Amino acid sequence: MLASWYAGVYSSVIKSENLSNLISQSLTCQTQSVKNSDDLVVFITDQGMASKLLSSLCSNQTINRQYGNVTVQWSHNEQEIIQYVGKGIADLALVKENVMLAFAAETTYRYQTVAQYKDYSTYLISLKEKPKLTKQYLWGKRLGLLDYPSSRSGHIVPKGLLNELGISEANMDIVYVNSHEALRDLLATGSVDIISSFWKDKDAERFSANYITPIKTKVSGSKWYLKMETQNTDLICEIQNTLTTLSTNTQSDYYRQLELVPYHCPLPKNSNEVLEHEN
C-alpha cells in the first residue's frame, strides 16, 4: 500500500536550507512517483501546521501522481517571504493579501486564491484595565508585539496606531516575540502592560473580555494562493479538500474559519482521498 511506502520515506527532521543566503526551516517527503522531478513547494508562516500539512499532501493520490517531492517551508522572515512569494518559488502559499499585491504576484506568477480565513479584529489586550487608544494612555507603556512585519494584528496595525497618535517607538517599551501565544504569556506573567493581537474564545480563560479594546475591525485574513501555470483543476480540488480536512481537525479558532473559493469541486470522500497513514 501507498500508506506503508509513504511512512518509510517521510522525513520528519527539520532541515535548514540555504537559498540565496536565506536560512529557512522545512519538512520534505518523497511521493510514490520517485522518478518525477517536479517538486510541490509550500510556503507558510505557521510552523505549527507544517507537519500535518505535509503528511496530508504527501499521502494524497493526485499529488502523488503529479509530483515527486513535497516541501513545506515556514518562516516569518520578511526577506524569505519576498524570496518564496515575491519571486514565485512557492507553488502553494499562505500569506496576507497585501504581500501578493505588493509584488503583483497574482499577475506575474499566476497565483490564484483557493481559500481564505475570515476577516478578524485587532485588539489591545490588558490584564487589569481596559486599554485606551490615546497618546496619554499609551505613552511609556510596555507593549508586546510580534517580531515579523507581515503580521497585521501583531505588528502592522498597532504600529500604525502609534504613528497616528504621534508616539515614537523610542517612547514605548516594546517587547517582541515570535507568536501570538508568546504574546499572551508575556501579558499573563506581567512582563508587558498590553499586547496587540486578535481575540479568541479561549482567551476568556486567561483574560477578561472587559479589558480589550478594538484598534481595527475587518482586518483581512490570510489567504491560500496556488500557482496555476496550467488549468490543473484536479490539483485545485485536492488542495482545497486537504485544507478543509485540516481546518476541521485543528484546535485553532482562527484556522477553523476557512472559506473556499468556488471551483465546483466534488465533496471529499474519506477525508478527501487522503490515504490513511497514521496509526
Give a structural overview.
- The chain has 279 residues and is α/β, with parallel strands linked by helices.
- It is built from eleven helices and 13 strands.
- The chain has helices at 2-9, 50-58, 61-66, 78-86, 97-103, 105-108, 135-138, 152-165, 180-188, 233-249, 253-256; strands at residues 15-19, 22-30, 39-44, 69-74, 92-95, 111-117, 120-126, 142-146, 173-177, 194-197, 212-219, 223-227, 258-260.
- It has an eight-stranded mixed beta sheet, with helices on both faces. It has a five-stranded mixed beta sheet with strand order 9-8-10-7-11, with helices on both faces.
- α8 (152-165) links the parallel β8 (142-146) and β9 (173-177).
- Residues 1-23 and 271-279 have low confidence and may be disordered.
Give a brief outline of the structure.
This protein has two domains: 157 residues, D-Maltodextrin-Binding Protein, domain 2 (3-Layer(aba) Sandwich), CATH 3.40.190; 100 residues, D-Maltodextrin-Binding Protein, domain 2, CATH 3.40.190. The longest helix is centred in the last third of the chain and has 17 residues.
The portion of residues assigned to helices is 25-40%
Please name the CATH topology of the largest domain: D-Maltodextrin-Binding Protein, domain 2
Strand content: 25-35%
CATH architecture of the largest domain: 3-Layer(aba) Sandwich
Number of DSSP helices? 11
Structural class: alpha/beta
User: Shape from CA axes?
Assistant: elongated
- Mean pLDDT over all positions: 85
